[in-house]
DNA sequence: CCAATACTTGCATTATGGTGCAAGTATGCA
DNA sequence: TGCATACTTGCACCATAATGCAAGTATTGG
């Protein structure tokens, strides 16, 4: 409910980054929500990086984030109305390097690991696990 | 016809600037083409600044520019298809500070100075005229 | 052919933004 | 209560991008 004045160009600024566009494209195509570790396993980027980009997307008014236990679920906001138009544009973009489709494939596989519709595990990709393991 | 590989995030990067968004919004709303001096008189920004932003928009594939004598006319490109969706988003953005509507008002007035549908004069705004006058 | 003019651009400066490391917070389980 | 873990963030560093000045190019009218 942070309806603070958002500069209009901030909407595009939010998507003017490769990683952030991958996040939004993934969520637009799937319509699903996602926690951070699922995104790490889907985009194969470190959690601190995605966490920061998620914050930027939230501040730009594209995402809402909700804590559930140790997990934080992120989902697309649909209001104000121009966001739906924005997502249509994101979905219409070409995927010539097939980065988005690769993200999507990993995300769908990762969803299979949910139990009761919720993520119950942490990062699975060896390269991005916290060193404590 | 520069169908070179444009990074998808470059599309949003192009609109992630206040001045460039004002240019595109103006052209989306009017559907008209415009030369540089008309844009200077509409946005009240120096010509070198707008010229550079126009170049960025051209390189991002949003504009085509055509020289006519001493004037260069800029118009929106409509292909690839995602651009139409992008422009719909631009048009759907709020104008809470009424910057876009002020630009539009000045642009419409400036259009009245065309003769034969073409701009025949230079910058009218005193503050942005070249010092030679 | 010269001068006015519509527009562009090299350069230096400043501002903004992305990244990685390492340390931090918060939650839940044993 | 202590530890593992899901996520966040302060800091330093580097890359990118916006700006203004001044000099440049290209076109045209006298």
TrEMBL record, chains A, B:
Keyword Transcription regulation set for record: yes
CDD domains noted in UniProt: HTH_ARSR
Any one GO molecular function term: DNA binding
Pfam families given in the database record: HTH_5
Keywords assigned by UniProt, alphabetized: DNA-binding, Transcription, Transcription regulation
Record domain HTH arsR-type: where: 1-98
Name used for this protein in its record: Transcriptional regulator, ArsR family
PROSITE patterns listed in its UniProt record: HTH_ARSR_2
Organism annotation: hydrothermal vent metagenome
Cited InterPro entries: ArsR-like_HTH (IPR011991), HTH_ArsR_DNA-bd_dom (IPR001845), HTH_MetalResp_TranReg (IPR051081), WH-like_DNA-bd_sf (IPR036388), WH_DNA-bd_sf (IPR036390)
